[in-house]
Amino acid sequence: MEQLLEMARKVCDRAEIFSADSRGDGVSFENACMKDIDSSMQSGVCLRIIKDDILGFAYTRNLTDRATLIQNAADSLRGGVDGAFDFPFTKELPDLDTYDPSMETLPNSAMVEECGRVCEILSHKTKGQINASAHRSTGRIRIINTSGTDLSLKSSAFYLGTDIVYPYTSASLHRTLVSKRFENAGGEYLDFLADTYEQSMQEVQPASEKLKVLFLPETLYVFLWRLQSAANGQSIYQKISPVAGRLGEEIFDSSISIYNDPLNDSLPGARTFDDEGTPCTRFPIIERGVLKNFYYDLYFARKLKASPTGHGFKGSISGKPVPSLNRLTMMPGDESFAGLIQSMDRGIVVAGALGGHSGNIPNGDFSIGVSPALYVERGQITGYAKDVMVAGNIYDILKRAAGLEDTLHPCFGGTLPAVLFDNINVTLKK
Fold this sequence. Notes:
Number of helices: 9
Number of domains: 2
Distance between the termini: 63 Å
Structural class: alpha+beta
Number of strands: 24
Radius of gyration: 24 Å
Shape: globular
Helix content: 10-25%
Strand content: 35-45%
Largest sheet: 9 strands, mixed
């Protein structure tokens, strides 16, 4: 990579090289029987060059022909893409524990045995169809640039996901475990799935009305997706954010605090720098309901005359960095999950969200099918309801928080608690 950087330096004003390689293995069980084993490998090198404040970009899977890679990047300068920003000089970052070497040699048989054990235990607790999957991955990235930055990172991750499917539906109760190393699923994880499923097996038909609605952690991405869009520097620049100009205002309930926390290395994916080499920090988005910050990559920080915040990340190895929040954490409350259920006279538990993309995302609107929708009456889960919809706007809904779970769960969208909301319109098809 050093040779590539020196060659690139001769044809441009500024250059950056990003290299990455990753390896993953996964197993899946369907109806408590092994269905599939797969493996994947990915690697590549990205070159960004800037000449006369115009950005060039090229990608290759290997470095067998450095001259061609540089020529491809130089040719892309004809596109006239704005590159009026500087690559950072970054050094002396904190040390994080992001990698467990045992994940390099973890056999697929260990994941098969764990999925089989989970299915076996749950099959004695419930008659629902049990699906389970496990995946392990290791990866390495390195960033060097003409400003003098030279950063690298090794990482490892283990994921276990379990679903229990409701009869004659595609709806299922789901929960995920994540770690930097292989771990067995504990009793609390298995009991939550089995007990919650067993309580909700009976189909019920409640009436449409305003109810208390409890969103499980796995479904809060519906709200966070819209918040990320609104606080994104790109949305601010394009003038499509409904919260532009509202820094310092209370936009949610005071119990809501949301941070991007890339330095938390108790879970996989911790980072001290983003995919452009900018340092990462614990970064507040919402603090006690107050909008604290917008987030930027190098490009949009320069456009808005702001400082880069360490949020330039790639969606894939071959992609370009864009503003992204990839380590969101919502601060927990002081109620147990059971306590939140007991506080509901009548209500719905959103255990699965369909159509999270529906509605005007930049404006905060959403309209989701709830599948499964668990029904609560007099403080107990009594069954599940079909054809349930919840719609609204996050800047209204998140002002109605009535309680937050005291435990955080890793899931798609971040590390989150269950959150209870009051007086929400719930529509059920009769």
